[in-house]
């Protein structure tokens, strides 16, 4: 199964991942200009790591704190909604081709993370043993 993940990640990287990672990295750098934007820049860089190599990773909820909820609301209003809608649109478009279906699934899976990144962590996907 790891071979398919590597192939999926390479295909992802050259079709969607690199452009998405660069745009998130630039956004993160811009957010670091002000002290108030630093937590948002940190979240943007967490997303960069995930969007570069998403196959084999999963997003888990780690906390639901008040500052995280406020951060999610601000993130959503100031840029999360357009990012999530663009990912959803491109995810649906990717379903047109058979080879694009896995990429579309990853894009659609990214929508909640792009909309509300605070309180979430990206972790390696656990392997399930089959008898």
Most strands sheet: 2 strands, antiparallel
SS summary, helix count:
4
* Alpha-carbon Rg, integer: 15 Å
Termini distance?
15 Å
Mean pLDDT, all residues:
85
- Residue share in β-strands: 5-15%
How many structural units, i.e. domains? 1
Oligomer: single chain
The count of DSSP E runs of length 2 or more, i.e. the number of strands, is: 2
* Widest beta sheet: strand line-up: 1-2
Residue stretches low in confidence (pLDDT < 50, at least 5 long) are: none
Helix coverage percent: 55-70%
* Succession of helices and strands: HHEHHE
The computed structural class is: mainly alpha
Shape: globular
Describe this structure in words.
- The protein is mostly helical.
- The chain has one domain (2-124).
- 68% of the residues lie in helices and 8% in strands.
- It is built from four helices and two strands, in the order ααβααβ.
- The chain has helices spanning 2-31, 38-52, 66-94, 101-115; strands spanning 57-61, 120-124.
- The chain has a two-stranded antiparallel sheet with strand order 1-2.
- Helix 3 (66-94) packs antiparallel against helix 4 (101-115).
- It is globular and about 45 Å long.
- The mean pLDDT is 85.
Short overview:
Residues 7-56, 70-120 form the Inner membrane component domain. With 131 residues, the chain is mostly helical. 68% of the residues lie in helices and 8% in strands.
């Amino acid at each position: 199964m790891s071979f398919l993940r590597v192939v999926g990640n390479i295909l992802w990287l050259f079709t969607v991942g690199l452009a998405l990672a660069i745009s998130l990295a630039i956004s993160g750098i811009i957010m670091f200009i002000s002290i108030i934007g630093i937590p948002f820049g940190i979240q943007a860089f967490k997303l960069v790591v995930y969007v570069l190599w998403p196959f084999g990773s999963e997003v888990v909820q780690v906390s639901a704190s008040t500052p995280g909820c406020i951060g999610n609301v601000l993130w959503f209003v100031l840029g999360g909604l357009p990012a999530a809608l663009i990912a959803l649109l491109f995810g649906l478009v990717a379903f047109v081709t058979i080879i694009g279906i896995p990429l579309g699934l990853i894009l659609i899976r990214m929508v909640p993370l792009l909309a509300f990144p605070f309180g979430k962590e990206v972790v390696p996907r656990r392997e399930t043993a089959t008898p």
